[in-house]
Design a protein that fits this description.
The complex is a heterodimer of chains A (374) and B (69).
Chain A lengths: L37 H9 L3 H13 L3 H12 L10 H24 L5 H24 L7 H30 L3 H21 L6 H17 L7 E6 L10 E12 L8 E17 L5 E15 L2 E15 L5 E17 L27 E3 L1
Parallel strand pairs in A: 1-2, 2-3, 3-6, 4-6
Antiparallel strand pairs in A: 4-5, 5-7
Chain B lengths: L8 H21 L7 H23 L10
Chain lengths: 374, 69
């Protein structure tokens, strides 16, 4: 029933006036959250699309790590919606967290340089903290919420777990590279069996990350064909005569240089096999020697004078024919992770140092060969 | 003490994935298989992806104990 203008509304003396709207408060969202609900809280506070906020945060994260720092700070300082007002302990924790953050910023800015700005210097710290939180969340199922002290504790535990997994990964890499792949694979299977059993009688989610930490390096080593036998470090071989040239050289990790400039190679073929687990192999040949080359490289590249190639699963074939009475060196490379290079001088394009950023080929040619064959 | 009405989905999935992945690695290490990056990378990423998927589903309250939130 509609009331007419002539009919006054009854007085409502008991009705209190509407209270003033509560001031908007920036809180992390507990409903729209992927990690800590910071983007969801920002989107709600400014009444804008959540996706746009997330895109902006990712863009900031890629621009020197600013987004990660902002996110980590909001995670620690901004309460989640529905959280009680901070008590004295929370206030003290937040004050400590702010103090630590400011001190850390000053230290990094003063001693870390400004190459990429403070964000660039802080990026590893922020990324590590966020990674620690994510790891702990994955392992324990506990979202990064609660008091700043709890968040920091979880971040530290996550970082500790990451460090342990890193050590396991390095150990797995070395063991696999030295031929212990069967043992490592057996450990992965055992960890999987333990997880299956634990799924029924308890829970051992923490075992997932260590198992992956040993499985993935083994997969990498197996796929790349990395063999770490043969020693580590820099190794230079400079034979003076043809008789001193060995048919093959091997290095586990590092740089192997075979310098043949002092050798006068006779006409005909001379085979040279190089096997590198991970690193750089450089063959320096005198002018007037034709070089044919083949190489199998897991991850890396090949540079033979003015020709090069690279990527994953590289199968390099460069067959050359030498004119009569011209020596031909047949290089056969087997590199797991790294580079194979053949040049007339030691101005390597893959070695770190002055030559690294110099002209790419600077006139290098395989000019002693007559024809290139399929 | 937690009740075990149903198995923990993440642990079960991750365990099965690791057993299969480990078996592939074992065959590769014993030269029964020869997997280059072109084959190994999809297997490795698939294994990690399956574990992450199981983790996400178990956190969504779909099965198992759903985490410890």
């Amino acid at each position: 029933m509609n009331s007419t203008p002539d009919t006054p509304l009854p007085p409502t003396p008991d009705r209190a006036p509407d209270p003033a709207p509560a001031p908007k408060r920036f809180e992390r969202s507990s409903t729209n959250r992927l990690i800590g609900g910071v983007c969801g809280g920002l989107a709600r506070y400014f009444a804008i699309d959540l996706t746009l906020v997330r895109i902006g945060m990712v863009a900031l994260a890629l621009l020197g790590g600013t987004g990660l720092i902002v996110y980590a700070a909001a995670l620690v300082l901004v309460p989640a919606d529905g959280e009680v007002a901070p008590g004295p302990t929370d206030t003290r924790d937040r004050a400590i967290a702010v103090g630590v953050a400011i001190a850390l910023t000053i230290v990094v800015c003063v001693f870390g340089g400004f190459g990429l700005g403070a964000g660039g210097a802080l990026f590893p710290i922020a990324a590590l903290s966020v990674a620690g939180l994510a790891v702990w969340w994955f392992v324990s199922g506990e979202r990064p919420s609660g008091s700043p002290r709890n968040v920091l504790t979880r971040a530290m535990l996550g970082i500790a777990l990451l460090a342990g997994c890193f050590a396991l990964a390095v150990g797995s890499f070395l063991a696999s590279g030295f031929g212990g792949g069967v043992v490592v694979a057996a450990l992965v299977i055992a960890a999987g069996a333990a997880l299956v059993c634990a799924a029924f009688v308890g829970r051992a989610r923490w075992l997932v990350l260590p198992a992956l930490a040993i499985a993935l390096p083994l997969a990498f080593v197996s796929a790349a064909g990395i063999d770490l036998h043969g020693g580590f470090g820099a190794k230079t071989v400079r034979p003076g005569t043809v008789a001193e040239i060995k048919p093959s050289y091997q290095l586990g990790a590092g740089e192997l240089v075979v310098d043949l400039r002092d050798v006068k190679l006779p006409a005909g073929d001379r085979r040279l096999k190089l096997k590198i687990g991970t690193g750089h192999a450089l063959v320096i040949v005198p002018a007037g020697v034709c070089v044919a080359s083949t190489a199998d490289i897991g991850v890396g590249g090949v540079t033979v004078f003015d020709r090069d190639g690279g990527g994953l699963d590289v199968s390099w074939r460069d067959f050359r024919r030498a004119p009569a009475k011209t020596p031909r060196l047949v290089v056969d490379g087997d590199v797991g992770l790294g580079f194979l290079e053949v040049r007339h001088d030691d101005n390597s394009v893959h070695r770190f140092g002055p030559g690294r950023f110099g002209p790419r080929f600077d006139g290098e040619r395989n000019s002693a060969c007559s024809t290139r064959t399929a | 003490m937690r009740r075990h009405d149903s198995p923990d989905r993440l642990s079960l999935t991750a365990g099965l994935v690791l057993i299969v992945f480990g078996t592939v690695l074992l065959l590769d290490s014993t030269d029964v298989l020869h997997l280059a990056f072109g084959a190994m990378a999809p297997i490795a990423f698939g294994a990690v992806g399956a574990i992450l998927l199981a983790s996400g589903l178990s956190r969504g309250g779909g099965g198992g104990d759903g985490g410890t939130r």
